[in-house]
């Protein structure tokens, strides 16, 4: 009889012990991780310099700057009739692909406008088209070699064509998928094909002697410096800016500046509104052409992927 009672007591004790253990584990699992760490006993030693190779944890796929696919198109316009007649159209397109050390970028933009009063001739007031193709080869995450080529037609800067070829090296002070700060240095080859009306030179008074026409085309060799910053830290807003300086090798007093800035805000789904501003300055422009030329535009942008 005593043996049977002892067996029953042992069985009850086992059940209670198992139940208590499960309850304790359940309570422990319900506690926040920080609470568990705070209650962990120390081992009595701290290691801050461990032998062997130090390895970094891989970046998440959506944060890795070595993998990127971006494509977007945008367009904007203004149309009026009646006392004032006007049509203005602006458009842009961008594609960027990054795979490991290779990156390909292309940009396209067009701006066109015509305006006139009622009863008068409608004239073209803005006409320029631009395109750029660029390839980067990343030696490290912070250093890249690049080759960039661009072409521009700008009626009111007196250019049928301005072609630029720019090899160089880029250093990224910040290079993540959501934020980039880079400086570039290199060589710029520029080839201009001028409009006929922009080749006419006006004599400086009191002289009235006609001056010869400027050459139809001209090649220039320049040094190029560039500083650019892109910020996509917030999902709904992105910001980009750049400043380019071109210094002629042939004439120390000849230089050009190009500044651009843009802000894009999502309005729903893949649609966003983008506001851009570009300023171009030439200290020795063609005759009858202003030194400073600027364009501000607002576009509705659709992100393809």
Secondary structure topology:
Elements: H1 2-30, H2 33-38, E1 67-80, E2 84-99, E3 102-117, E4 123-138, E5 143-154, E6 159-175, E7 179-194, E8 217-234, E9 237-248, E10 255-268, E11 271-282, E12 292-303
Antiparallel strand pairs: 1-2, 1-12, 2-3, 3-4, 4-5, 5-6, 6-7, 7-8, 8-9, 9-10, 10-11, 11-12
Descriptive overview:
There is one protein chain. With 305 residues, the chain is mainly beta. It has a domain at 136-303: Beta Barrel (Porin). It is built from 2 helices and 12 strands, in the order H-H-E-E-E-E-E-E-E-E-E-E-E-E. The chain has helices at residues 2-30, 33-38, and strands at residues 67-80, 84-99, 102-117, 123-138, 143-154, 159-175, 179-194, 217-234, 237-248, 255-268, 271-282, 292-303. Strands 1-2-3-4-5-6-7-8-9-10-11-12 form a 12-stranded antiparallel β-barrel. A hairpin with a 3-residue loop joins strand 6 (159-175) and strand 7 (179-194). The radius of gyration is 33 Å and the shape is flat. It starts with a helix and ends with a strand.
């Amino acid at each position: 009889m005593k043996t049977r009672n002892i067996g029953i007591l042992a069985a009850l004790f086992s059940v209670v012990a198992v139940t208590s253990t499960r309850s304790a584990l359940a309570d422990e699992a319900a506690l926040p991780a920080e609470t568990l760490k705070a209650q962990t006993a120390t081992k009595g030693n701290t290691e801050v310099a461990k032998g062997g190779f130090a390895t970094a944890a891989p970046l998440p796929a959506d944060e890795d700057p070595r993998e990127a696919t971006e494509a977007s198109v945008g367009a904007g316009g203004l149309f009026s009739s009646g006392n004032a007649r006007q049509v203005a159209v602006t458009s842009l397109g961008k594609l960027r692909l990054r795979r490991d050390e290779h990156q390909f970028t292309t940009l396209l933009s067009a701006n066109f406008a015509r305006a006139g009063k009622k009863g008068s001739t409608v004239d073209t007031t803005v006409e320029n088209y631009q395109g750029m193709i660029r390839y980067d080869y990343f030696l490290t995450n912070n250093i890249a070699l690049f080759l960039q080529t661009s072409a521009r037609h700008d009626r009111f800067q007196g250019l049928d064509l301005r072609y630029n070829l720019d090899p160089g090296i880029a250093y990224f002070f910040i290079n993540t998928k959501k934020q980039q700060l880079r400086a570039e240095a290199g060589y710029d080859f520029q080839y201009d094909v001028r409009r006929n009306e922009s080749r006419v030179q006006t004599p400086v008074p009191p002289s009235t002697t006609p001056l010869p026409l400027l050459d139809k085309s001209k090649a220039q060799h320049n040094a190029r410096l560039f500083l650019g910053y892109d910020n996509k830290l917030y999902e709904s807003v992105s910001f980009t800016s750049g400043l380019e300086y071109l210094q002629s090798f042939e004439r120390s007093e000849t230089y050009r500046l190009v500044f651009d800035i843009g802000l894009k805000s999502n309005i729903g789904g893949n649609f966003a509104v983008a506001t851009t501003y570009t300023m171009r300055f030439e200290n020795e422009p063609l005759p009858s052409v202003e030194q400073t030329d600027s364009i501000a535009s607002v576009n509705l942008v659709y992100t393809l992927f």
